[in-house]
Write a structure and sequence with these properties.
Layout: E1 10-16, E2 20-29, E3 32-42, E4 46-48, E5 51-53, H1 56-72, E6 78-82, E7 88-91, H2 112-119, H3 122-129, H4 138-145, H5 149-153, E8 156-159, H6 160-169, E9 174-175, H7 176-179, E10 185-186, E11 191-192, H8 194-200, E12 210-211, E13 216-219, H9 222-228, E14 235-237, H10 243-249, E15 258-263, E16 267-273, H11 280-284, E17 288-291, E18 297-303, H12 307-319, H13 326-335, H14 356-366, H15 375-401, E19 407-411, H16 418-428, E20 432-434, H17 439-451, H18 458-468, E21 472-474, H19 480-492
Parallel strand pairs: 1-6, 6-14, 9-12, 15-19, 19-20
Antiparallel strand pairs: 1-2, 2-3, 4-5, 7-8, 10-11, 13-14, 15-16, 16-18, 17-18, 20-21
Helix pairs in contact: 2-4, 10-17, 13-15, 15-16
């Protein structure tokens, strides 16, 4: 039976990640911020003859099943959707989806960046968009699709969260924190860049009107309400639909001088600023400027993150010979030789799925290091390399933005990894506050609650997170020998410039 009540203080956060999706229910009130999982489902890409694709129909089905659980639990005041960035679906003139969206790890964008730079120089592109160069940015995906029958038939481009919202409400829009990851967005103006679109031959009519976090997106379509059992008047609220933007909302910071690490499949390392940093030095250092809530800028670098560890675990699991349980692997890593081998987590050979342990060993051999053989040595190599990448990115961010950092907030799944948290504190020389683990879902819920008038501005929202969520504190070790070891390791891993 369909619920007739819509609790004013309960919100459904649809949070879709690269490996799984879930629907979380958040209750918000004075001194209250509770989160429970309603439904979790896998996000398994499908390799078709023409490339690696997302199973968006499976994701939509998982979302509907989760909302049905929410209805049985008593209903919700509203629903919000966040996902990863850059990927998109194309709709035809009738609003039908033109094939499953490509996965950003599909290699079809090889060579697309050079085609874009031939029309808009690399430095000029950065001055407009402020984006770190990633080979799978939407602008490069569209360039790779140029001339295809699918793109020729398309009338609307919807980024992944906007596609999910469209299937819930029937409305069309583009949420600005996710739009800012495309390479088609003007970082200063906060709008689609018509000049870039024209010079790159992208039809401006493909791109929907922009929405801001907190804007209403619509109400549930009748068949969605019927299937889920939710009240047909249930609102869908635009949230910070890029998952990192939602995670940054839920950083439990009580002062301004913080850096953040949103750590999961990717590590997003950076600062929250009032304005973009579009200097040549920032471009050369490969930093990105993405929109946040209330017009803020997420000034950060994308680092490959725990993808390396998860791909190692997947490879070992397929063989059935090595340990794969994370606690056992971390215990082995803690006993392995420190700094025996280090890699650049952002090396191109680590981007695609595959035999990650062997890729790591091959990288070490090419750089003249002894290759890590045991699972413990491989995991130690990954985690120490990530901690050093965090150190490098945060120090560069502070220098480029002219900011002082007094602490690091590490949120997301990486907050459970005690070795990574402690080694990040040791590498950076800064205290690390780990948690909340569910920062993305919490940020999603909090933007909905703010739209409903239940929470105030961003600082007060963060104070609520700090007061209600479990956090762990890691202090950097102070012994001189330990600091010197991290300094020496950092000198070994200093990469060559990527943006000539």
């Amino acid at each position: 039976m369909r619920s007739t009540a819509r609790p004013r203080d309960v919100f459904a956060a649809v949070d879709l990640g690269a490996t799984s999706g879930r629907v979380m229910l958040g209750r918000v009130g004075p001194g209250v911020l509770d989160l429970t999982e309603a439904h979790r489902f896998p996000n398994t890409p499908v390799r078709l003859p023409d490339g690696l694709r997302w199973d968006v129909l499976g994701l939509h089905r998982g979302v509907l099943e989760g909302l049905r659980v929410a209805a049985r639990a008593g209903g919700v005041a509203s629903v919000g959707v966040d996902t990863w960035g850059v990927d998109y679906g194309l709709l035809d003139a009738d609003g039908a989806l033109l094939g499953a969206p490509y996965h950003y790890r599909d290699p079809r964008t090889e060579g697309a960046a050079e085609a874009v730079w031939a029309r808009v120089g690399r430095a000029e592109l950065y001055r407009v968009t402020g984006l770190q160069h990633l080979p799978f940015n939407t602008v490069f995906q569209l360039t790779a699709a140029a001339g295809s029958a699918q793109l020729a038939a398309a009338r609307t481009l919807l980024l992944m969260p906007d596609l999910m919202v469209h299937w819930l409400t029937g409305t069309v829009g583009a949420e600005e924190t996710n739009a800012s990851t495309t390479g088609l967005f003007d970082a200063r103006a906060g709008t689609w860049s018509k000049e870039l679109l024209g010079r790159l031959g992208v039809d401006a009519g493909l791109l929907p009107p922009l929405r801001a976090p907190g804007d209403p997106a619509g109400e549930l379509l009748p068949h969605v309400a019927e299937f889920t059992g939710l009240d047909a008047r249930t609102r869908v609220t635009t949230v910070a639909s890029h998952d990192t933007a939602s995670a940054v909302v839920a950083i439990p910071a009580t002062g301004p001088d913080f850096a953040f690490l949103s750590c999961g499949t990717w590590s997003l390392a950076g600062l929250e600023l009032d304005a973009p940093v579009l200097t040549e030095q920032s471009r050369a250092a490969d930093f990105t400027n993405e929109r946040g809530v209330d017009g803020t800028i997420r000034f950060l670098r994308n680092i490959m993150g725990l993808w390396l560890l998860e791909e190692c675990r997947r490879t070992w699991e397929s063989r059935g010979q090595e340990p794969t349980a994370l606690p056992e692997l971390l215990a082995l890593a803690a006993r392995a030789e420190p700094f025996a081998a280090l890699v650049d987590p952002d090396a191109p050979e680590f981007l695609a799925p595959g035999d990650m342990p062997e890729r790591i060993r091959a990288s070490c051999r090419r750089s003249g290091q002894r290759a890590p053989e045991s699972p413990g040595a491989v995991v130690r190599c990954v985690l120490e390399s990530l901690a050093l990448a965090h150190r490098r990115a945060l120090r560069q961010a502070a220098e480029l933005a002219g900011r002082e950092i007094t602490r690091v907030h590490l949120v997301g799944g990486g907050a459970r990894n005690e070795l990574l948290c402690q080694w990040t504190a040791d590498a950076t020389g800064l205290p690390v506050v780990a948690g909340p683990v569910e920062a993305t879902a919490l940020g999603n819920v909090l933007v909905q609650a703010r739209a409903a008038g239940l929470v105030g501005d961003l600082p007060s929202t963060r104070r609520l997170v700090s007061a209600t969520q479990p956090l762990r504190h890691y202090e950097p070790r102070k012994d001189p020998a330990g600091r010197a070891a991290w300094d020496a390791a950092a000198a070994r891993t200093e990469p060559s410039p990527r943006n000539p």
